[in-house]
Amino acid sequence: MLFHLNYLLVIPKILLKPRDSVCFFLFHTRYGKLVVDRPKSHFFEHPFACVQLSIFYSSSLSRNPSFNSDSVPESHVVDKDYFGDNNDGYHKFNQMGTQDSSDLSLFGSDNGEFDKSEKCDFDIFAEEVEEGEDGSDSDDNFMVLDSFDKYRVNREEIRRVVLEEDEFRHPLVREVCRLIELRSAWSPKLEGELRNLLRSLKPRQICAVLRSQADERVALQFFYWADRQWRYRHDPIVYYMMLEILSKTKLCQGAKRVLRLMARRGIECRPEAFSYLMVAYSRAGKLRNAMYVLSMMQKAAVAPNLLICNTAIHVLVVGNKLAKALRFLERMQLAGITPNVLTYNCLIKGYCDLHRIKDAIKLIDEMPLKGCSPDKVSYYTVMGYLCKEKRIKEVRDLMEKMVNDSNLFHDQVTYNTLIHMLSKHGHGDEALEFLKEAEKGGFRVDKVGYSAVVHSFCKEGRIEEAKELVNQMSQMGCIPDVVTYTAVVNGFCRVGELDQAKKMLQQMYHHGCKPNTVSYTAFLNGLCHNGKSLEAREMINTSEEEWWTPNAITYSVVMHGLRREGKLSEACDVVREMIKKGFFPTPVEINLLIQSLCREGKMDGAKKFMQECLNKGCAVNVVNFTSLIRGFCQKCDLEEALSLLDDMYLCKKDPDTVTYTTIIDALSKNGRVEEATELMMKMLSKGLVPTVVTYRTVIHRYCQVGRVEDLLKLLEKMLSKQKCRTAYNQVIENLCSFGYLEEAGKILGKVLRTASKADASTCHVLMESYLNKGIPLLAYKVACRMFNRNLIPDLKLCKKVSERLILEGKSEEADTLMLRFVERGHIQPKSEEHLQR
């Protein structure tokens, strides 16, 4: 200990001479401490230590030139591992896929921040774009193109990792994947095994583990966990693989954190890394955030290339911002980035999405003049939209244009593309016409093309024509495969001919084609839709005898069939067997079963079923809890509903506004208004925003019991969180329906502030209520207040008020009311006779 203290006293003196001290220190992390070792010759094998040393020196010197040796900056104390070497962290890996990393910095402070050097600004990845309308036409993000070096070689630089099949089958990779699948029953022993395996894996094998995960969230959490292990650091290709995986999902926040982690680790962020983040934002529907990635590139001093420009144009096209994409094209050309055929193909797709087929064809004609000839994809894109609209003549004209203008000859791919496009959109006859034309032209259409036409006929219920086409395939030497036969089986099931479908399954064996899981699943789906779910269930039990294995879709089909027939216990048994086989039901499927059990009044069974799914690691979400809570509320078992609300926090499934609204409605309905108010205040304190349903529920229940003052206080707090223009309108109308007219009249002024049509409707409701109660004078006063706010009340209703006033001897008020209509021209002069009398 004394040895380390002496070194700490020497540190400030040595740091004042950086050239002499560069090779003196070796900083490395262990157990969350800063360790200083003796000089070592292999210091430069750890370049990241050099980077952190320079950051440490520059930041400390800039903050305090004298640098007091008695205080070591806390921002440079290394955070502990995410799990550490003790046994207290294994439960965190158990939550893979549900937890995010909050602080990814290696040298981070307690609040998640870190010191910045002058050369690298990591916080650019932490900035968020204010959410708003994504339709902003601002071109501020295009300024990144100004940083492009026109003299640089204009090429696409793509860092992609192509994995071989052997790498997925490697024993280490398979063992790591097996341990990850056991995360629901995680233990310190299993974590230790995984940690030892991690250090034996090569970077490409780590990539194979990430790619092998069916749930990208699990892959991301494993990535975070591995990064925090001692004596292990991800290779750069692992970061790019993780970004590539996330770019195919909506997990844009995870992609942003990976990019930020790359910057903190000193790994080069190339344009393709930003491209992956941009695509992830686009998939999540956040167009503004996606385009802001360009500004992030500019702040990170990363020059754009053709890849990032093509990605930006693709994102704009997908977001239906074609005009902005065209402006971006002009800016990138001015910056010296030459577009290629991929750029123009994106724009062609944008024109087609907007049904501007002529503009798309015009762009194809202009491409050679711009030094970029169109390829077959350019034509196929337009053909796809023409096939969708069954514009066959224009398709043929475009085929001729391919040959004459672009010297692109028709081949088997061209015909296969047309056959699949037409079959997909239900134009089987036209697809068959092209199929025969291809065969006459000497092209051999494979069984995939035939299967597409067969499937199209089956979808339309033309089973006999589909069978005839299958026979023609055999005669022409194109042997049908399992996909073709499965399409016919599915077609028979669609029209209810289950016997014919079963015979087709048997004939498949005679033709040397063994039915697979998809074939049997299609048949089981037909059984379930025809009320024979128990027979389908029995077929699953005998699947081993038939040499086929049910999958998740198979179990889901049978479960839904049993649920529709009201056989809920059997449906739950199917789900249990499904989980035992390693297949997990989706939250939607779980919710459907919970709702069905609640409708049958089997609340205990519904709760037990959801608890089993939760214990087995199924993706139980807030909606599932809310459905169960609603079931208990409908049974007036509010204590159980409130208990489930507490359980949600224990399970880290934070309730949403719908959950709170459901319980608040039930409490108010049963007279427990104080508890409902307390729960509403708790909901608002958690930052949850009330919805229209929340307002309607609260207003209805509070008006029902006449708690107007409490309601108005609660509405003020609710309106501070989320505006609702008709809130007070609903209050008055509900008070009128429950007979609290005096209270309704007191808050009429809050409604007349805006003087809208909705306010006029509310005033009419109040006037009718006064008339029904025999108080026409108050109805008259409401009408006068409407006139004062430049609102014209209903003439027929006011005539009723006038007649009732005359019967009560209040002729002056009646004449005054009608005179207000005459002054505004709503009554003809001849209608003034009764006023003159």
Automatic annotation (TrEMBL):
<feature type="repeat" description="PPR">
    <location>
        <begin position="481"/>
        <end position="515"/>
    </location>
</feature>
<dbReference type="InterPro" id="IPR002885">
    <property type="entry name" value="PPR_rpt"/>
</dbReference>
<feature type="repeat" description="PPR">
    <location>
        <begin position="691"/>
        <end position="721"/>
    </location>
</feature>
<feature type="repeat" description="PPR">
    <location>
        <begin position="586"/>
        <end position="620"/>
    </location>
</feature>
<feature type="repeat" description="PPR">
    <location>
        <begin position="446"/>
        <end position="480"/>
    </location>
</feature>
<dbReference type="Pfam" id="PF13041">
    <property type="entry name" value="PPR_2"/>
</dbReference>
<feature type="repeat" description="PPR">
    <location>
        <begin position="656"/>
        <end position="690"/>
    </location>
</feature>
<feature type="repeat" description="PPR">
    <location>
        <begin position="270"/>
        <end position="304"/>
    </location>
</feature>
<feature type="repeat" description="PPR">
    <location>
        <begin position="516"/>
        <end position="550"/>
    </location>
</feature>
<comment type="similarity">
    <text>Belongs to the PPR family. P subfamily.</text>
</comment>
<protein>
    <recommendedName>
        <fullName>Pentacotripeptide-repeat region of PRORP domain-containing protein</fullName>
    </recommendedName>
</protein>
<dbReference type="Pfam" id="PF13812">
    <property type="entry name" value="PPR_3"/>
</dbReference>
<dbReference type="Pfam" id="PF01535">
    <property type="entry name" value="PPR"/>
</dbReference>
<feature type="repeat" description="PPR">
    <location>
        <begin position="411"/>
        <end position="445"/>
    </location>
</feature>
<feature type="repeat" description="PPR">
    <location>
        <begin position="340"/>
        <end position="374"/>
    </location>
</feature>
<feature type="repeat" description="PPR">
    <location>
        <begin position="305"/>
        <end position="339"/>
    </location>
</feature>
<keyword id="KW-0677">Repeat</keyword>
<dbReference type="InterPro" id="IPR011990">
    <property type="entry name" value="TPR-like_helical_dom_sf"/>
</dbReference>
<feature type="repeat" description="PPR">
    <location>
        <begin position="551"/>
        <end position="585"/>
    </location>
</feature>
<feature type="repeat" description="PPR">
    <location>
        <begin position="621"/>
        <end position="655"/>
    </location>
</feature>
